[in-house]
Design a protein that fits this description.
The structure holds 2 protein chains of 2 kinds.
Chain A lengths: L14 H32 L5
Chain B lengths: L3 H13 L15 H7 L1 H23 L5 H9 L7 H10 L10 H25 L10 H33 L5 H26 L5 H23 L7 H5 L7 H9 L4 H16 L5 H7 L5 H27 L4 H25 L2 H29 L5 H32 L12 H23 L11 H11 L7
Helix pairs in contact in B: 3-4, 3-7, 3-8, 3-9, 5-7, 5-17, 6-7, 6-9, 7-17, 8-14, 8-16, 12-16, 12-17, 12-18, 13-14, 14-16, 15-16, 15-18, 16-17
C-alpha cells in the first residue's frame, strides 16, 4: 500500500478515501448549517431581534 | 543542514493515524475498557428516552400548557421510524465505503440527527406553547418545528442504537456476546436512571431559559459522549473497501434472514413478550398511587425496584448464557416468571397490600431482564456475521414498535374502562384488564417460544452452532442472492 501512486500527500489516504473523508465534512457542515438556520428562525419567532 | 521537509513528513506520517477516528488494525481481543467506552452510546440513548418520554412529557403538559393529546402525538412520532431499523441495519451491513468502514458512518449520522433534534427542540417547544412573541406566529410553525425535532431525535436514537449494537457484536467473539448484551442493557439503564435524577434536579425551578440550557446541554453531551464511544472502535477493512460493489437488495437479504429456521418465530416471541412487559412500565406508578394509595415517593421507588429487578435479570442471564446456556431458555424463563408476577399485581389490588406489589414489581423486572437479555442474545446468535446489522435492526424494530404500541394500548384500555358507564366500582377496575392482558401476552409468548426450545440445537440459538451453521447461514443469506 505504501507505493500506491494514488496517495494524497500528506495523509497517506488514496484519492477515494480522501474524498470520502471530505464528503463527511461537507455533509456535516450542511446538516449543522441547516439546523442552525432553523434554530435561529425559531428564536426569531419567539423573541424577534431585528425590528 | 536540517531537512525540514523530511522532518515534517515524518512527524505527520507518524502522528496522522493517531488523530483519525478509526482503529487501524482489528484486534482479536477487545479489552473491557474499550467495550465499556463503546457502550457509552447506550447512555445517550437512555438520556434521550428519559428526556423525551419522561421529562418533556411533564414539562410540555404542566409548564408549557400544551394539550395532552398533542403531546401524546408528538411523543409517539419517533415510533414511526422504528420499522426502519431493519433497513438501517441492512444499509450498514452493505455500506460501500472507500475507507472500509460500515458502522461508524451510521453512528455518526445518527448522532448528528440526535444533536439536530435537541438543538431546535427547546425553541420549537417554546413556539408551540406560544411563549413571548410566538403567540402571534402562525400555528403551523410551532407544530411542524416540534414534530421535526422529535422525529430527528427519534430517528437518531434508532440509528445509533441499531448500528452501535451491530458494531459491538462485530467486535466480540460469539462466546462473549452475552456479556456484551448484559453490558449494553446495564448501560442503557444507568443512562436512564442517572439522567432522570439529573433532569429532575436541573428542572426543579422551571424557566424557559433553563429549558433551553438543559435540552441544548443534552445535545452537546450527546455528541461528546457518542464521539468518545465510537472513537477508534471500528477497524478499517481494506478487503471490504476494495471488494467490487455487490447489489444485494433489501428484499433478498430480508428473505435470507427470515428463511432461517425459527427467525420469524423468534421475532414474534420478542414482540409478544416486549408488549407484555412494556405495558406495565407507565401504569405501575399510577396503579400504586390510585389503588394502593402510595405516595409519590413510594411510587417512584416502585420504578427503582423495577429497574433493580431488571439488573438482577441481566446479571443472571449474562452469567448463564456466558457459560453456554441457550438463549431461548432465558427467554422462556423470563416470560414464565412474568406471568405470576402480573398475577401477584392483581392479587395485591384485591388484598390492598403494598409490599406484595413491590415484590411483584421486583419479580416482573427480573423476568423482563431475563427476557430482554435472552431475546437480544438469541437474535445475535441467530444471524450470520454478514447480517448482524439487519438482524439487530429487525430485533429493534419489533421491540420498539411492540413497546410503543403496548404503552399506548395500556393507556387506552385504562381510559376506556374508566370512561365506560358503570365502571369505577373499585379504583382497581381500570387496571385489571391491562394486567390480565399482560399475563395473557406473556403466556402466548411462552407458547410460541416453546418449539424453539424443544427443537434442534441450531434453532435454539445455543453457542454450539457457532462455526458450521454460520457458514451455511451465509450461504442461504447474503452470499447467494437470487439472480
Amino acid at each position: 500500500m505504501s507505493n500506491d501512486p494514488d496517495k494524497v500527500w500528506p495523509t497517506g489516504l488514496n484519492l477515494r478515501e480522501a474524498e470520502e473523508v471530505h464528503s463527511y465534512l461537507i455533509d456535516g457542515t450542511r446538516v449543522f448549517g441547516v439546523i442552525a438556520l432553523i434554530a435561529h428562525l425559531l428564536v426569531a419567532v419567539t423573541t424577534p431581534w431585528l425590528g | 543542514m536540517f531537512d525540514y521537509k523530511r522532518f515534517a513528513l515524518g512527524r505527520i506520517a507518524s502522528l496522522s493515524t493517531g488523530y483519525l477516528p478509526f482503529a487501524d488494525v482489528a484486534s482479536d481481543a477487545v479489552p473491557l475498557s474499550r467495550l465499556l467506552r463503546l457502550s457509552l452510546f447506550q447512555v445517550t440513548v437512555g438520556m434521550a428516552l428519559v428526556l423525551v418520554v419522561g421529562t418533556l412529557n411533564r414539562v410540555m403538559i404542566v409548564e408549557l400548557r400544551v394539550p395532552a393529546t398533542l403531546v401524546a402525538v408528538m411523543l409517539a412520532l419517533p415510533l414511526v421510524f422504528a420499522p426502519f431499523r431493519a433497513l438501517i441495519g441492512f444499509r450498514s451491513d452493505t455500506f460501500r465505503s472507500a475507507l472500509g468502514l460500515r458502522r461508524l458512518p451510521y453512528i455518526w449520522k445518527g448522532t448528528m440527527l440526535q444533536f439536530g433534534g435537541f438543538a431546535i427542540m427547546p425553541f420549537a417547544l417554546l413556539v408551540l406553547s406560544g411563549y413571548g412573541e410566538a403567540v402571534d406566529a402562525p400555528r403551523w410553525i410551532g407544530l411542524s418545528a416540534a414534530a421535526l425535532a422529535f422525529l430527528l431525535v427519534g430517528a437518531g436514537v434508532h440509528m445509533v442504537q441499531t448500528v452501535g449494537l451491530a458494531l459491538a457484536t462485530d467486535l466480540m467473539p460469539e462466546a462473549d456476546q452475552p456479556r456484551v448484551v448484559g453490558l449494553m442493557y446495564v448501560m442503557l439503564l444507568v443512562g436512564m436512571i442517572v439522567s432522570a435524577f439529573a433532569y429532575g434536579a436541573l428542572l426543579e425551578t422551571y424557566t424557559p431559559g433553563r429549558l433551553i440550557q438543559v435540552i441544548q446541554g443534552t445535545a452537546v453531551l450527546t455528541v461528546a459522549i457518542n464521539g468518545i464511544a465510537m472513537w477508534k472502535q471500528e477497524a478499517r477493512n481494506r478487503s471490504r473497501a476494495n471488494a467490487p460493489p455487490q447489489a444485494y437488495s433489501f428484499r433478498d437479504s430480508w428473505a435470507g434472514l427470515t428463511d432461517r429456521a425459527g427467525m420469524i418465530r423468534l421475532l414474534a416471541v420478542i414482540g409478544l413478550g416486549t408488549a407484555g412487559f412494556g405495558m406495565a412500565d407507565v401504569l405501575l406508578e399510577p396503579f400504586g398511587g390510585q389503588v394502593l394509595a402510595m405516595t409519590v415517593a413510594q411510587t417512584t421507588r416502585l420504578t427503582v425496584v423495577l429497574a433493580l429487578g431488571s439488573l438482577l435479570g441481566f446479571g443472571l442471564a449474562s452469567r448463564w448464557l456466558g457459560r453456554g446456556g441457550r438463549a431461548m431458555d432465558a427467554v422462556c424463563l423470563g416470560a414464565v416468571i412474568g406471568i405470576p408476577a402480573f398475577g401477584l399485581v392483581l392479587v395485591s389490588a384485591l388484598v390492598l397490600s403494598a409490599p406484595l406489589l413491590v415484590a411483584a414489581t421486583l419479580l416482573a423486572g427480573f423476568g423482563a431482564g431475563l427476557f430482554g437479555h435472552g431475546s437480544l442474545t438469541a437474535t445475535m446468535r441467530a444471524a450470520p456475521r454478514e447480517q448482524i446489522g439487519l438482524s439487530l435492526g429487525a430485533w429493534g424494530a419489533v421491540q420498539a414498535t411492540a413497546a410503543g404500541l403496548a404503552i399506548a394500548t395500556g393507556g387506552v384500555i385504562r381510559d376506556l374502562v374508566l370512561a365506560a358507564p358503570g365502571a369505577g366500582a373499585t379504583s382497581a377496575s381500570p387496571y385489571i384488564p391491562v394486567f390480565a392482558l399482560e399475563g395473557g401476552l406473556l403466556l402466548l409468548a411462552v407458547i410460541v417460544a416453546l418449539p424453539l426450545r424443544r427443537g434442534d440445537p441450531a434453532a435454539a440459538f445455543g453457542p454450539a452452532r457457532a462455526g458450521a451453521a454460520d457458514k451455511t447461514g451465509a450461504g442461504c443469506g447474503l452470499a447467494a442472492p437470487g439472480p
